[in-house]
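seq:
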Amino acid sequence: MSSGRKQIDTVVIVGGGTAGWMTAAAISRLLGGVGLAITLVESAAIGTVGVGEATLPQIRTFNRMLGIDEREMMARTAATIKLGIEFRDWGKPGDRYVHPFGTYGEPVEGVDFIQAWALANALGKASAIGDYSLPIVAAWADRFAPPGEGGQQQPYDYAFQFDAGLYAAWLAELAQGSGVVRREGRIVEVIRDAESGNITSVLLENGAVIEGDLFIDCSGFRSLLIGDTLETPFEDWSHWLPCNRAFAVPCANGGEHGPYTRATAREAGWQWRIPLQHRVGNGLVYCDAFWEDEAARDALVTSLEGEAGGEPRQLRFTTGRRRELWRGNCVAIGLSGGFLEPLESTSIDLIQSGILNLVELFPGAGIAEADQREYNRLMDLEFERIRDFLVLHYVANQRDGEFWTAMREMPLPESLSEKIDDFRRRALLPDYADGLFQPVSWISVFLGQNIVPEGWDPRAEGIGEAALVETLDGLRQSYARDAAAMPVHREFLRMSGAQYAGASS
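struct:
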C-alpha cells in the first residue's frame, strides 16, 4: 500500500565549505548503498566563514565512520592535537583553568571523585582540581601521547585544531570520489511547488536548473533555503548571549603549538587562540553595544604573538536558531540553522550532529512528519544545552566592567539557574543520557570560575581524613608522572607521521 509520500532519490546540498562538504562526504559514504544521486552547489564567488578550526573529540568518531585515516588527515590539514580548552581571566583577572577531554580523579572508596574532592577542599587538603586530570597536566606541559599507549591509568580523549579550509577541500575530494556531483554557480532563484510549498529546484545564474527531492541548506548565515525561501522563524538568544560581532585573523606562531585552544576574557567579549602547525588562528568575539568596532579590532591586532597574515575580517551575527531545522523537504545544517559563538568549539560539532541525526532519520521512502519532529527535537536539545553551558561562562564571572556586570546580573534560563544552585549546594551535576556536555564539563567551569560546593555526599566523611588526603595525593602524583613520560607535542607530530608539509620544524 502506498504511503502517499514521494521517495527520496535525489539530494541537493546548497553551499560548500565545512558544513556542505562534511554533509556530502557523510551522506555519500554512509548512505552510498541506497542509490542516491547527490549534487552539491557552490559558488567560488561566495566566501565561507571558515573560522571553525577547533573541534571536539566527537570529530574522531565522524572521521572513523567515513574511513578517514587520522594521521593522514592531520598531515593534510596542518592539524595539532587538542586536549581541552584553556580559559583565562573568566572568573577573575588572573584565573586560569582548562575544560579537559577527560575525567577528574577516580572514585574514592565508592564515592564520586568530585564529592571526595569537595570535602577535601573544604578541609584545606585538596590541590587545584586540574591537578587530578591527566589531559590538563599534559596540556600545560605541552605533551601528548594517544590514550593507553604509555600505560596511563586515567581515561581521556582528544580532538584536533586544524585548517578548516583544508579539511573541507579534502572532504570534497572524498565526496566526489564517492559519486557526489559538484555544480559551480550562484543560485538566483529557488523554485517551490505551488501546492505543497516544498522546494523543487534551484536556478543558477548560468540558466541551469537543478532539481531535487531533498534539499540541505548549508548556505551559512545567508540561510538561503530554510530562512529566505521557507521563512522559518528565527529564535533570537541575544538577550542571553549578546556578543554579535567578531574579528578573525591568522598570524605566525610565536612559540610552541600547544595541545589546547585558548579563550581569554577581554573588555566586552573574549579572544580565541587556535595553534595549527603552520600558523595560529586568532579572533575576538565581542558585543558592539559595549565595545566599538575599531577599538575591538585594535585590541586583537596589538595582542597577536606573530606577524598578521592579512587584514582582520569582521563577522556579524545574531545568536540563536531557527525554530525548525527541518521544514518541508529542507534540512538546515550549520550556520543556516543557527549560530552559537565558538566559545566551546561547538560549531563543527553541531554540523556533525545535524548530519548524523539526518542519516539516522533519512527519509528514503519519503518524508514523514514523525521523522521531522524527532530531528527537530534532537537538534533543539543540542542547541539549548550548548546555550546554557555557554551562558554559564558569562554569568559566573567576578570581573569589573559594564559588560561583565551586565552579564552577571542578567536573568538566567531556569534550566541553568537550577544547575548552578544544585552544584553550589551539594556538588550535584547534570547527567544527560545524551548530549554534548557531560558532568566533567560542568565541573570545569563551575570550579574554574569559583562556584565551589558548600556540601557533599555524606559518605565522603566516612573515608577518613588521612585516607582521603593520601588517595588524592597519590592520584595527583601519578598523573604528573604519566604526563612527564609523554613526548613533547611537536615531537609527537613528527614521530607519528602527522606533520604538515608546509609547517616549519
